[in-house]
Each structure stands twice: as C-alpha cells, then as structure tokens.
Amino acid sequence: MWPGEHRVIRIKTVLVVTLLNVVTVCAVAQQSAPAQGSFKVIDNPGGGQYMYGPLTGRGTMPEAIVYMLRQVHSYFGDRPEVGKFFQSRDGTSIATFFAATAKKQGDKPIQGLLIVALAGDGSASAAAIAAPSSASPRGGKSPR
C-alpha cells in the first residue's frame, strides 16, 4: 500500500455512502412527485456539491451515464475524467468516480462520484457528488 491509501479508501467510502443516501432521498421524492426534468444542486457549506434528480424520457443505461457526464461537464466547465464503472448485481444502477477541474469555480480540482439508477418502469434517477481534491496519487486529475 502506498502512503495515504487508507485515507483515499475512507474518502471514497464516505462518498459512496453519502451518494447512496442522496439517491435514496431522490427515489422517495420521485415516488411522491412527478419528474420535473431538472436537477437540484446543493452547495455544501464545507465545500463540494450534490446534484440529483430524475432523468426525463426513457433510454438505455449508457445514454443516461453520458447525459449525466455532460451535466457534470456543463456545471463545472471541464470534461470529467472517469474511472472504472461498477454496476449493481441486478443491473439497475451503475456508478463511476470522476475527476475534473472546476473551471467555473476558480479552477479548483475536484473528485466525485456519479450514479444512475433505473426503475422497473424504465424511468431513471441520477446523482453526483463532488468535493474539492486537495491531493491525488496522480496529480489531482485521475479519479482512481
């Protein structure tokens, strides 16, 4: 193990747990309200942002991932570099870590997690969580 690897694993675990909580809240909210087609963005006072909401229309999982990566690109002003994708055993959700430079927010390096979940009826919800990246094994640009 390289120095700081435990810290990186701990940060990724916290990101995953937090994002899963956001997706759960989205799923509950989506059951009680119709899809609006827009994402809600919450700025965390300690730094970082949450972006979540329903995806309008019907499509495939790859189309949903591409759409969300474009949303992240649009919001931060930089094309995110993605890591390996991981999928739930039942195939209803897929996620990836990403890294980018928040050009619209002072050129700060960020790292985050993106997740898309498909419901049985073909509708989808998505969420992304991003936080400032102070250090990364590959210079703050790689999501791995």
Word description of this protein:
By secondary structure, the chain is an alpha+beta fold. It has one domain (5-132): Protein Transport Mog1p, Chain A (3-Layer(aba) Sandwich), CATH 3.40.1000. It is built from 2 helices and 6 strands. The chain has helices spanning 5-32, 61-76, and strands at residues 40-43, 49-55, 81-87, 93-102, 108-118, 124-132. Strands 1-2-6-5-4-3 form a 6-stranded antiparallel beta sheet, sandwiched between helices. β4 (93-102) and β5 form a beta hairpin. The longest helix is centred in the N-terminal third of the chain and has 28 residues, at 5-32. The chain starts with a helix and ends in a 12-residue tail after the last strand. 28% of the residues are buried. Mean pLDDT is 75; it is low at 21-37 and 135-144.
Sequence-ordered SSE layout with sheet pairings:
Layout: H1 5-32, E1 40-43, E2 49-55, H2 61-76, E3 81-87, E4 93-102, E5 108-118, E6 124-132
Antiparallel strand pairs: 1-2, 2-6, 3-4, 4-5, 5-6
Give structural attributes.
6-stranded antiparallel β-sheet, alpha+beta, Protein Transport Mog1p, Chain A, disordered C terminus
Brief summary of the model shown:
The protein has two helices and six strands; from the N terminus they run αββαββββ. With 144 residues, it is an alpha+beta fold.
Query: At the third CATH level, what is the topology name?
Result: Protein Transport Mog1p, Chain A
Number of helices: 2
Reading off the top of the CATH hierarchy, the class is best stated as Alpha Beta
Please tell me how large the radius of gyration is.
Answer: 15 Å
Assigned CATH architecture: 3-Layer(aba) Sandwich
Give helix and strand order, one letter per element, not per position. HEEHEEEE
Shape descriptor reads globular
Q: Distance between the terminal alpha carbons, to the nearest Å? A: 14 Å
Please tally the β strands and state the result.
6
Query: Which oligomerization state do the chains in this entry correspond to?
Result: single chain
**What is the averaged pLDDT score?**
75
Structural class designation: alpha+beta
Total separate domains:
1
Helix content: 25-40%
Low-confidence stretches: 21-37, 135-144
Strand order of the largest sheet: 1-2-6-5-4-3
